[in-house]
Design brief:
single chain, 557 residues, alpha+beta, 5 domains, 5-stranded antiparallel sheet, 3-stranded antiparallel sheet, 13 helices
Length: 557
Amino acid sequence: MRRCASFAFAALLAAALSAPVFAAPESQPEPAPAPAPTAQPAEADAAAAAAARAGVEVRLFNRVVTTFRSPIFDSTPAERAAYAERHLRDLLREGGEGKVEVKKVLQGRALTLDGKFAFLLVPADANAAAGESLDTTAKRAAESLGRIAAESLESRSLDAILRNLAKAGIATVLAALLIWFLARLRGWIAKGLASVGSRQADRLQVAGQALLGREQVFRAARGVTVAIFWLLVAFIFYEWLAYTLSLFPWTRPWGEGLLGATFNLAARIATGILGALPDLAVAATIFLIAWWVARLVDRLLAPFIRGEVETEHIDRDTARPTRNLLVIVVWIFAIAMAYPYLPGSGSDAFKGLSVLVGLMISLGSTSLVGQAASGLIVMFTRTLRPGEYVRIGEHEGTVVELGAFTTRIRTGLGEELTISNSTIAGGTTRNYSRAVKGRGFVVDTVVTIGYDTPWRQVHAMLVEAARRTVGILESPAPMVFQTGLSDFYPEYRLVAQAAPSDPRPRAIVMSDLHANIQDVFNEYGVQIMSPHYLADPADAKVVAPANWYPAPARKPE
């Protein structure tokens, strides 16, 4: 009975201090039921009601003591919190040991500070959504109130304040010394990196030109060291600020928040790394298998690429693109298999980035995919090969490179042309090297001579001109074809094979061939003139050998 009476007295004391009226103590036979809480606000006050249900925090020394979520009689959670803060400040000003206790009363749990009532928690104040009970809420509130009481005593202690100021001064000196040391170390590291980089820069060359100069290497080294230095300075300042704020009671919650943020970030990173290790191991295994398969494909096709082995479907020209296609397929398959195991692959940011990349590829790769498909068609149908002399549309030259998207040819005039593979696949290509025996190319030219000149003589003269031309082979022998019988003249086409060489001599060979044709026809008195005429000229339109070298031409020695 004595214990019940003490609890009843505590409840009545709480009622007297916190304004709401409590029910009768447990010793009474029939306690009067507490009046029901006031009705919820109307629709116009729905937002205020939601805020009340969310709870109102009681704050002291920048710390949360507890949260009131339920009204008591006519006192709203906000009114309860305001009164509790004023009452706790009064209790803390009185001083004392700062002993906090939790007592059970009929209405809930009463918290006392140095034996004096502080505030009351009712069952509705517990966060039921988080699964908390009233005892858990009261225990956490007691711990927070005890810490606040201890910090209140510390804030009134001159010795503690002076001791904390000394600690803050020492921390400031140490931070300044560490920043000074990092500044000196930054200079040493920058000089070392610049020295090493300048020695290695000469080795990094493309087409005989160095990619980076000594000045560029020095600037890059300096930029890297400066960036790392300021990152370390920011980290030191952050830790110094957090430690200094945590020394004083008024700012200790802010410092603890900064330190807690650092530790929480480090813990999240460490936890994420440890949690991702199994998935990373699976992804690494998949990539390792893909690398092994790609190496196997490369080794299997290496003899074909070197030209040591050749089959009906794979030769030296198609082996390399076949190898590249197979390796690409292997890695695409590996990426698709390893994607779910990559850290962050299930996040919304990763998914959004994947959608963005896919959309960009789908919108911008239409012509790219067409060019690649045309390149594969040109490669695997063996339309062109590097080193062959071809004519593509109006362009004529030697194939220098057959790429996945474009083909480069070099003309006899020293020009290098880049032609899209879709143009080659969709047009007509004339290959002068495919029908020849061995390596080389075909040269041909057309002349038109009147019907009054015997065709056998024309054949012999064209063959003679071909034999005089340096670069044209005797075997196979040059041949002449009559490709048409027009109204005024027949058409003669001379076809010969030239020796393999670079593109420039073909233009020279063609020029020499045309010059020799003119010389041979002049020697035999046959005029090269398509006779679109009404009457024969009085004199033959030929140049006598004596007149072959008028000024400024000079006869060769």
